[in-house]
Amino acid sequence: MPSKKPRAHEGPHKYQKIAIGTKGYQVYKCVLPGCNHNVQLALALNLETLCHICNTITIITKDMLIRGKEVLKPLCLDCRATRLRVREQLISIGRTPPEEEE
């Protein structure tokens, strides 16, 4: 009996941008344990994903998929706003913010 291909888990995925293959083809891959799901960046619009900070369900929007600037780890609006606010405060007091992965 042939072995079955492992299935992706049920429910929303937790996407992260990675490069696959020898040419570095960019895709969003689910980073949840035991999940093998991935999707092309161009097809990720309006997919549900888990926020990498608070694990709430969020939707991948057009702003997250600007060509060449696709977010590495999608965040919900609240976590994104908090991250931007902290970054602005660090810049206003003359400190350089830590390098972001996005």
Mean pLDDT: 85
Helix content percent band: 10-25%
List how many beta strands DSSP finds.
5
Q: Radius of gyration from the CA trace?
A: 16 Å
The major beta sheet can be summarized as: 3 strands, antiparallel
- Measured by DSSP, the beta-strand proportion falls in 15-25%
* Classification by helices and strands: alpha+beta
What order do the helices and strands come in, and which of them pair?
Layout lengths: L14 E6 L4 E6 L7 E3 L7 E3 L6 E3 L17 H16 L10
Antiparallel strand pairs: 1-2, 2-3, 4-5
How would you briefly describe this protein structure?
With 102 residues, the chain is α+β, with helices and mostly antiparallel strands.
Kindly describe this structure:
There is one protein chain. The chain is 16% helix and 21% strand. It has 102 residues and is of the alpha+beta class. The chain has one domain. The chain is globular. The model has no long low-confidence stretch (mean pLDDT 85).
